[in-house]
Amino acid sequence: MSGDRGGVLSKAAFFLMTHCHHHHHPTLRAFLPSIAVPVRCAAGSATPPAAIVMSDTAALQQKRAVRSRIRKALKDFSPAQRAQEDVEIQNFVLNSSWFKSCKGLCAYISCKSLREVDTSTIIADVLKNSGAEHDLQVMKKLYVPRVEDKNSHMRMLRISTIEDLVANSMNILEPYPVDSDQNEREDVLLASQPVDLLLLPGLAFDRHGRRLGRGGGYYDVFLRKYEELANQQNWKQPLRVALAYSVQIVEDELIPMTETDVPVDALVSSNGVFPISPAAFERM
C-alpha cells in the first residue's frame, strides 16, 4: 500500500511541476476535469515523458497493442458522437487566436474510412478567406499532403481551391502535382516563407504530446524535414497541433516512442485546446 501511495504522490508531483504553473491558461482549464495520466518513469528521473524513448523492438510491440485497441474504439465510436465531436473540434480551431492569426499552415485532408477527425470545415474556411477587411482572420497559404511512394515520402503542396484535390487509388483526396496552368504546385519544403501551424492526424495520443500514427512514418519524416528547414532558415518552428477524438486520447499510459517519433505541441479534442509544450503555452 505504501509503495502504491508513493507512486501516486510522485506522479502527482510530476503533473503539478509540469502543468500547474500554467493553471491560469483558459484553454488548459477546459481539459483539467478529464486529465488523469499516470506517468511511468524511473524514480527520480527528471526526463519529460515526451522525451522518453525505448528500443525499437519493445516500442513496436507496444505500438501494435495500442493501435489494435484504438482501432477497435474508433470502430465502436457511434456516428452521432463522432459527428458531434467533429463540429466541436473544428470550432475550437476556427475560433482560436492562433488559427486566425496564422499566415500559412499545413493541414491534412480528413478521410472518413480512416476515421480521422473531420477537417472539411477548416479547409473550406481557409480557402474561402479572401483577406478582405470583413474577414475575421488573415489570408492564409494552405498546404495539404500528397503521398509520393510507400517509403514514407510525402509532400505538402499548396492549394487555392477545393477543386485542386483529386482522389488517389485509396480514395483519399490529395493535390494534383500541377495546377490548372500546368505549373508545379509550391512545395512547403521549397517555399520562401514559413508556415505557422501544422494540423496533424494520428491514431492515438497521450497528454504529454506523444503521437502514434498508422505505421507508415509519413508524418514523422515530414515533421523532421520541416524542423531542419526551419532551423536552417532561422524560422520560428510551427505549432504542431493534433486533432483527436475523445477515444483516441490514451489516459492511463504513455504512448510508446522511439527516436524517430515526433511529439506534438498541443491537442484539440471536443473538450477544448490542450497546450503541452512550452511553445504552445507561449503562443496559444
UniProtKB/TrEMBL annotation:
Organism of this sequence: Musa troglodytarum (fe'i banana)
> Kind of enzyme, top EC level?
ligase
Can you name this protein? 5-formyltetrahydrofolate cyclo-ligase
User: What keywords were assigned to this record?
Assistant: ATP-binding, Magnesium, Metal-binding, Nucleotide-binding
The record's annotation in NCBIfam families points to: MTHFS_bact
Please provide, in alphabetical order, the Gene Ontology terms of the cellular component aspect for this entry.
mitochondrion
Q: What EC number(s) has UniProt assigned to this enzyme?
A: 6.3.3.2
Example of a GO MF term = ATP binding
Query: Per its UniProt record, what InterPro entries does this chain match?
Result: FTHF_cligase (IPR002698), FTHF_cligase-like_sf (IPR024185), NagB/RpiA_transferase-like (IPR037171)
Per the record, the similarity remark reads: Belongs to the 5-formyltetrahydrofolate cyclo-ligase family.
Residue spans crossing the bilayer: none
Which reaction(s) are listed as its catalytic activity? Answer: (6S)-5-formyl-5,6,7,8-tetrahydrofolate + ATP = (6R)-5,10-methenyltetrahydrofolate + ADP + phosphate
For this protein, the record's Pfam families field holds:
5-FTHF_cyc-lig
> Which GO annotations describe the biological process of this protein?
folic acid-containing compound biosynthetic process; tetrahydrofolate interconversion
